[in-house]
Amino acid sequence: MRAVVQRVKKASVRIDGNTVGAIDAGLLVLVGIEADDCDADIDYIIKKCTQLRIFEDGEGKMNLSALDLGLSALVVSQFTLHGDARKGNRPSFILAAPPETAVPIYEKTLERFREKLHTQAGVFGADMQVELINDGPVTILLDSKKLF
Length: 148
What we know:
Strand content: 35-45%
Radius of gyration: 15 Å
Shape: globular
Number of helices: 3
Number of domains: 1
CATH topology: D-tyrosyl-trna(Tyr) Deacylase, Chain: A
Largest sheet: 6 strands, mixed
CATH superfamily: D-tyrosyl-tRNA(Tyr) deacylase
């Protein structure tokens, strides 16, 4: 599982002009799911996202997490995070899970986020427009398969 985590002042996702999810300060998390992702991958991403110390403390140091501050998350599925453009100019998405595999994993990921943070979400497979004000900017890449 891959995630792009952005510290935001606010973020929203719209479908056909209708807002389906919006948050103020917190995390925008774009999630890409692989066919072999399992509970361990979900747990890794949830723990990392909610506990990343990317928010400033009273001394201006990035020392606090969204969980510490009781902030929100906007979670959006994005299969293109698994795009491989090493060969040619058209990305291959062979590593991205097909919808029948990805949807249950995405839904479980949302459930687990909601256990930790107030969470809004996009709609899996929809053509979404994501709007955000990246705070910092702070953007972190996570990959549950690239553990050390």
